[in-house]
Amino acid sequence: MEHEQTYGRRPRRRGRKLLIGFVVLLLILVGLVAVADRVAVSVAERTIADEVSQQVAQQNAQSAPPEVEVAGFPFLTQVLDGRYERISIRLRDVQGSVQGDAVALPSLNVDARNVSASLDTLRTGQGDVVAETVNGTGTISYQSLAALLNREGLALAEQGGKLAVTAPVDILGQRLTVTGTADIVVGEQGGVALKFDNLDAEGLPDAPLARTLVNNFARSISVDVPLPELPFGLTVREVVPRPEGLTVTADARDVPINAAG
């Protein structure tokens, strides 16, 4: 009886071993596919970075080498479909090709959504890689803005959600500290202007000439901000003062993100 019971267990053991072997093989295959997927992503990211560098140059701008991240898993199914969920691009030290007085963006984060790129385009390098929407966010430091205004001792900062200014000014023989805020105006074509219309100074003499001098100073520091031409046809939509600087938000639609576009 014992011999029969022992004999009856052996097929179950062999079946269990076969099942374990199958699971191990399956895990190995999944691992290989995952590795291949990540390798393909890495190659795609390097290729897109090269294309973006050319695109930036064509837009009369320059930056440090782009940092690219292709989102979505698995990546290979996106390749076969010819459509990618999201491609994130980070550009550092964005500035105009002609230095001049253009204000540099220390970083510009670009988020391209619903990117179309056929398998044939990727293979041959011919054709367009087009993003349905592109959104960009960058920050202008207050130090660079203050340097643009070129007034000794002038400082800019965020205060209560507004762009605040503090500057020493000589008024009727007195050294006074002028303070106030600016309105930030974004034009239809994406240009940005600072309008200082409401400045005051503690101890300001009660004389029309003193007020005129403060108003003249306000006009002298009300300027158009010379932003570098943004890549991908991005147009500035909003500028918001934040503790770290002016945050610039820009967008565009149906944008070619490769040099062929």
From TrEMBL:
Superkingdom field: Bacteria
Known InterPro entries for this protein?
DUF2993
Under the heading Pfam families, the entry gives:
LmeA (PF11209)
> What name appears for this protein in its UniProt entry?
DUF2993 domain-containing protein
Q: Which organism is it from?
A: Micromonospora endophytica
Source taxonomy lineage?
Bacteria, Bacillati, Actinomycetota, Actinomycetes, Micromonosporales
